[in-house]
Amino acid sequence: MTSPSSTIAEPPGSDALSAIERRVLHKSLTPEEVEQLRFEQERDTRQMFRRLLDPGIVRGVEKQTALSSMKTLLTLADNLLNNPGNDKFRQFKPTNTLIKRTLVDVKGALEYAVAMGFRANIKDFQPYYIFNDHKTAELRIGAAVLREHVDKESEKERQRAASKIQEKSAMEMQAKQVKLAFEDDRKRKAQQDKLDRERRLAREAAVAAQEAAGPASPAMSSTSAHIIDLAGGRTLASPPPYDEESGSDH
Question: Model pTM?
Answer without folding.
Answer: 0.55
